[in-house]
Amino acid sequence: MAVGIFDSGLGGLTVLDAVAKRLPDVPLVYLGDSAHAPYGVRTPDDIYDLTTKASQRLFDAGCDLVILACNTASAAALRRMQEGWVPEGKRVLGVFVPLIEALTERQWGDNSPPREVDVKHVALFATPATVSSRAFQRELAFRAIGVDVEAQACGGVVDAIEEGDMILAEALVSSHVEALKRKMPQPDAAVLGCTHYPLMAAQFQAALGPDVKVFSQAELVAESLADYLERRPAMVGPGTESAFLTTGNPAQVSARATQFLRRKITFDAA
Questions:
Q1: Closest to 99 in 3D by CA, of 130, 128, 53
Q2: What's the pTM?
Q3: Segments of the chain assigned E as strands
């Protein structure tokens, strides 16, 4: 009855933590592709190839449903995977839609036509690959009209977080927010479009100011997954054991993950 959660590195642990709290009885198999991180500077074909390989590994581990807890993979690979790769009886879902549904105040799974929403000016902070894909804007257009999105590619932030250099990460966040504000001085809302960024949510909020509502993904994805599994219980796979897998050095990744979540995490080789 396992569900797979995939990320290019450690950022997806924010989603795993929220899902584990929301669905404590569901075994979770986490796969971090640390050997090839970060994805945000890779080509779409590279991201697709790496994401399909990782998803297959999670299917092999007894997961029928895989959550791409990686915005870059969701942006660059998900649609292509859903249209021509995902095996019969399996599902791969991304992290954009729950975020956009919350931003536009729609119920989970609401497929009604796009409509006017209260939020008019949205700042999107994401990796270079996510920004260049324009996947967030495309998904938003399915659900809302009249929303101006200004995207800021946050180069270096993921690398700093993965290396545990939070001082550098904080400095980079401030720099990227300043750059965004030169393009959009007064956003109504900000979207942290990378699962690493919740660790820096306080720094984003401080740099943006108290009047900007900051949307982060982990809890939103967890709630969306709970709703999805309630409606489709058969998508919980046959796996019975939780696991943490990495393509990187297990000891090194375990140490960083333990620091990342502030609890003991032990990774095995994928």
A1: 130
A2: 0.88
A3: 2-7, 28-32, 63-68, 91-93, 115-116, 121-126, 144-145, 148-153, 189-192, 213-215, 243-246, 268-269
Question: pLDDT class for 107, splitting at 50, 70, 90?
Answer: confident
Domains of the chain and any CATH numbers: 2-94+218-269 (3.40.50.1860), 97-215 (3.40.50.1860)
Contact 124, 149 (CB under 8 A): yes
Q: Is the pLDDT of residue 222 over 80?
A: yes
Dist CA 180 CA 251 (whole Å): 37
Residue whose entry in the numeric block shows the structure tokens 């297990």: 250
Q: Which residues are catalytic?
A: 70, 194
Contacts of 102 (CB under 8 A, 6+ apart): 215, 220
Question: For residues 27 and 56, what is the distance between their CA atoms, to the nearest angstrom?
Answer: 17
